[in-house]
Structures are given as C-alpha cells and as structure tokens.
Write a structure and sequence with these properties.
- By secondary structure, the protein is α+β, with helices and mostly antiparallel strands.
- The protein folds into 4 domains: 4-35; 37-160 and 177-319, no CATH class; 322-437, no CATH class; 442-603, no CATH class.
- Helices cover 19% and strands 41% of the residues.
- The strands form 5 sheets. It has a 6-stranded antiparallel beta barrel. The chain has a 6-stranded antiparallel beta barrel with strand order 11-13-14-17-16-15. The protein has a 5-stranded mixed beta sheet with strand order 24-34-27-28-32.
- The protein is elongated.
C-alpha cells in the first residue's frame, strides 16, 4: 500500500517546477479548446495586408488540408513580387514553401486557394506552381486585393489565363516548361467512374484542362456549410449513381460569400453551379504531380463566378440540376440509373456523354458484342421534346460498343446548345437502351426496279438486296409514288441508301445546328425529322429546284428567287438543291444500314 510517509522528501524547486508545468499544460489545453484549431484561427484573420507592403525575405504561413478535416499550417518565404505578371495591374507574389511536409509533397493539386498570411494578415491565395520536376517547392500567390476586389477591366470569361491542367505553360510565360509558372491543378474528382471511361474521353478532358482524379462521396453533415479559410470545397458537375466534382481550397469567407482556388476553374465567367464541401482522405506525394485524394460531401451553396483571380460562391441552397434517367434492358433483366447534371452549354454535352457511357458499360447487365437500340427524349422547358432513336451494332475493333451511343447523345446536346437565340433549359433527360444478342447490321449490295418506266401518278416497286453481317443475303421491297406533275419524257432518280446519305441528299449541308439563323424550335424540328440509321431508305428525286431555308423546304422556287441565293460560297441558312425529294419509303431492319445505289426511272 502506498502511504504518505513513503513519499520522497519534498524539494521546493523541483516541486514548483512540476506544479507550473502542470498548470501551463492545462492552460495550453484550455486555450486550444477555447480558441479552436488553426482552421478557426485562420477564419478569424479578417485583416488584409496590401501588396505594396510585401517584399522579398518576408516570412509568412499558409493553411491547407493534407489529411482528414484538420487544417494544417505550413511556412513560406517571399522571393519577390512580379508586377504585371498576369497582365496590366495583375501582379503575383513569388514564394517558396518551407517545412518538412511541403518540401516532401511540393505544391499539391487541390492546394490552390490556400490562404497566405504575412504579419498575421491575409495576403492572398496560393495559385501557381513552378515547373513539374523542380527540386524547390516554389509557388505564386494571387494578391488578396485582386481576389476580393477584382479589377473592373478584367473581362469576364475572356482572360488570358490558361485553364488548369495540361495547357502549355510555355505559351503562357515564354519560359521553358521546366521553369514556367502555371496554375496549380484543380482535381476533377470522379466517383463511380471507371478508368476505362476516362480513357475514352481523355482527349476532350484534356482540351478542357481537367486533371482527372478518382475519389468518393461522403454523406452530408450538418457542419458542411461551416466553411473557414483552409477548408476544401468545389463545383458539382454530376450527382447521383456516379458523381463529378472539382476540389480546391477556400481562401476566405466573408459573410455568405466564399472565395476559392485563387485562379479560374475554366474561366466560365458568371455561372450558377452547385457548390459542395470536399473532405480530404490523404495527400499523394509524387515527383510528377502530387495531389489530394478527396471525398465530396453535401451541397452547401452556389458557385456564382469563375474569373481570373478566383472562383466565388454563395452559401445557401444550390441551383437546380438536370435529372437524367438511364434504363438498360436485356433478356435477363432491367436496371435503372439516376443522375443529375449541371445545365451549362460548354459542360453539359460532355457530361451527358461521360455519364451515358459509364452508366451503360459499367452496368452488370451490359455485355460487349450485342446490338444496342437506344430511344429517349430530352424535355425542354417551353418547347417540344427532342426525340432520340438509333441502333448501334458492335464493331470488330477494340473500341467499346457503347461509345457510339454516348457520342450520338453528346452530338445532339451540342447542337441544342449551339443555337444563338436561346439557352435551352433542360427539364429532364431519359434514355432507354435495349440489348439484343449478336451483331445485327446490313450492307446494301444491289437494287433494281420492277420495271424501268412509269406514268405520272403510278406506284413503282423497288427491290433491294441486303447483306447481313456474316449471314445470307435477304431481299426487301419498297414502293414509291411517281408524282402526278412529273413531266413525261423526263428521267427521275431513285436513291437507295442509308439514313445519313439520304439526309445529305435531301437537306444538303443544312444539317441541324449548321445554319446561323436556326432558332431553337426550328432546330428541334430538324432533329426530330432526322432519319433512323436502322432503316434502308428509298427516295424518288425529281429535277425540280428546291430552296431550303432553316427547317423549311420551298419546292418549285421561281428562278428570280433562286438567282439570289444560288452559288453561295459557304454554307449558310439558305441553299438551293437541284433536285427535290418527291417520294420516300423506309424499311426497318433492326440493325444499322450502310451503302448507296442510284437508279434511273423514265416517265413515259
């Protein structure tokens, strides 16, 4: 038993030392508890230091997250101020990061926006990195004055700042790529997307400057919107059974206004995109490109600006997204997937293609080597729905069979958003893909008329010999009507072809979206009248000029009108065709058709 008399004799000096050690330790814990983490300390630093007070040799610090939710502090020293670096009155503070952690990781993708402090005052946001394989962690800082009060002469969405990612930095600075300042990458976090999907769309992703990173999602938490400097947040591009989000560091929070990144995401200008909290799992160190691995949390507001010096947002409810449903049907079952996408003319077409391809090919019911029949519709607010229907057969190349569907849908959205009259508001997207076993496609081998001449008003029978993929040929019949006004003694042209060739023969270069004056209603009409690729078409053309004006056809146009628009040097909204499509017949085959044959029919 431990007794009072067994204790060592009390030593006044050592006893007092132990006493004050305990007291100071307790006070330190209480101070940390009351004052909070470095995250809270950073959030309390509201005073700013102007650029003219920053000089070489100044030591400061910055905040970012390397792991978990803990905002960590790292030190830095000013190497110099580069005036007019980004353009007139657009300066950059050049700094070197100091400390074991940052000297190991270097400048990390996702670190852009990290708040930088000198003399305890907010100086700006980490935004640039120097080179790729550099031995020194040297970075550029966007001054806080430019972030909070961007110069009025900066044109929205027209900056010369390159988008993040693989943009050539040498063209930006005039230096070699190994010694050029370039924007710190903003990772685009793909959750639920397989690498095969990203590989298929790698060229388009690189054109946007995206740095693709795999990550996950985290359940929404009550404190998601409690943002402070050093936390991470970003844009939401896709939500649902798979998600795409950007992630960068918060520079400052002023009331409900949030400033992130320290540089543009894509220089989109004024936008309305959801803003979500991001939570760091860990930081991956790499000599090539260190990056943060993050999970995306709940939506916390709206990204309102994507400008030269910062991405800005507002805390509160997020804007609405476009619902998208994909149903995949096979003989063995049916599976439904649900997504939500942003409504933006530059982003939506690519996001639709990515989501469609990933949802299709990463489906447990999906299998290569099957013929896929796609139907669907795009519901537009205040306009008629756009109808989608086509069939896609497997190819003999190594390319995935699902990629033509994704590109077909992307092409339709690109046409919708290319009209110059109105930005379409998409209410809903629905796609249904039915899979049939085997390769079903057809080639037009030959064709002939049941008789070589006909009278005006008579019906003519056309027979077409089709060669299926690795199968016996089959004969299909079609009937054409010779118009009553056909001139006796003339020759008419019978065209047997696939959908694409008949579209071009009857519409010339007036493809949907090509005409500069095509309004959205006319564009929808053109899209809905495009022919299906799983039919063989038989068309009868008469030698009568036709004026095509947007989605309107004006047959038998007077020569005075034709002379005004004939011979245009470049495609426009009006053109003249030397022939008119007088009669048409379609034969559905259940698989894509290719080929063309032209025959002559005499009118007696």
């Amino acid at each position: 038993m431990y007794r009072l008399t067994d204790r060592a004799p009390f030593h006044p000096v050592r006893g007092c030392a132990r006493f004050f050690t305990v007291v100071f330790a307790t006070l330190a814990l209480l101070t940390a508890f009351c004052c909070g983490s470095p995250q809270a300390l950073a959030g309390q630093s509201t005073e700013i230091i102007p650029l003219n007070q920053i000089h070489a040799g100044m030591r400061g610090y910055a905040f970012t997250i390397f792991e978990g939710d803990q905002v960590q502090k790292f030190e830095l020293v000013v190497l110099g101020v580069m005036d007019n670096f980004m353009g007139p009155k657009q300066s950059i503070i050049l700094v070197q990061l100091v400390g074991t952690k940052v000297e190991h990781t270097g400048v990390v993708a996702g670190m852009s926006g990290s708040p930088v402090y000198f003399e305890g005052k907010l100086a700006g946001a980490l935004s640039l990195k120097l080179g790729t394989f550099t031995k020194e962690p040297i970075a550029g800082v966007t001054p806080i004055e430019d972030i909070l009060r961007p110069p009025p002469d900066v044109m929205v969405g027209q900056s010369s700042w390159p988008v993040t990612g693989n943009t050539s930095s040498s063209s930006f600075t005039g230096l070699g790529s190994g010694a050029a300042l370039q924007p710190i990458e903003t990772p685009l976090v793909f959750s639920g997307f397989q690498p095969a999907t990203l590989q298929q769309f790698a060229p388009q992703l690189q054109n946007f400057g995206f740095v693709a990173a795999q990550g996950g999602t985290a359940p929404a938490r009550p404190d998601d919107s409690h943002l402070q400097a050093g936390d991470m947040a970003g844009m939401v591009l896709v939500q649902g059974d798979a998600s795409i989000n950007s992630a960068c560091t918060v520079t400052a929070v002023r009331g409900d206004h949030v400033y992130l990144c320290g540089h543009p995401f894509l220089s989109l200008g004024d936008v309305q995109l959801p803003m979500a909290r991001s939570r760091v799992i860990t930081t991956l160190s790499s000599d090539l490109a260190s990056t943060k691995i993050v999970n995306v949390g709940g939506s916390i507001g709206t990204i309102t600006g994507d400008h030269l010096t910062a991405v800005t947002g507002t805390l509160g409810p997020p804007p609405a997204l476009i619902p998208m449903d994909i149903t995949f049907v096979t003989p063995s079952g049916e599976k439904k997937l649900h997504f939500k996408l942003v409504n933006h003319p530059k982003l939506t077409p690519l996001l639709v293609a990515l989501t469609t391809f990933n949802g299709l090919t990463q489906n447990s019911l999906y299998g290569e080597g099957t013929t896929l029949h796609m139907t669907g519709e795009i519901l537009l607010h205040g306009h008629a729905a756009v109808q989608l229907e086509n069939t896609f057969s497997p190819g003999d190349s190594l390319g995935p069979d699902g990629i033509p569907i994704a590109l077909n849908v992307q092409n339709t959205f690109a046409k919708l958003f290319s009209n110059i009259y109105e930005r379409p508001e998409v209410d809903h997207i629905s796609l249904r893909v039915e899979s049939a076993s085997g390769h079903q496609s057809f080639t037009i081998e030959s064709a002939w008329l049941e008789k070589g001449e006909a009278t005006p008003g008579e019906n003519v029978r056309v027979r077409v010999r089709l060669r299926p993929y690795r199968g016996a040929p089959r004969i299909a019949d079609a009937t054409l009507h010779v118009p009553e006004q056909a001139v006796r003694g003339s020759n008419l042209r019978v065209l047997i072809s696939d959908a694409d060739l008949l579209n071009r023969a009857s519409r010339g270069f007036m493809v949907p979206g090509a005409g500069a004056s095509v309004g959205i209603d006319q564009l929808i009409s053109l899209l809905n009248h495009e022919r299906r690729n799983d039919c063989v078409y038989v068309g009868l053309f008469v030698p009568s000029p036709t004026i095509l004006w947007d989605d309107k056809e004006l047959p038998n146009a007077p020569l005075s009108q034709i002379s005004i628009v004939d011979g245009r040097p470049a495609p426009g909204s009006v053109q003249v065709l030397r022939e008119s499509l007088a009669s048409e017949s379609a034969i559905a085959l259940g698989g894509p058709v290719s080929g063309v044959i032209s025959l002559n029919l005499a009118v007696r």
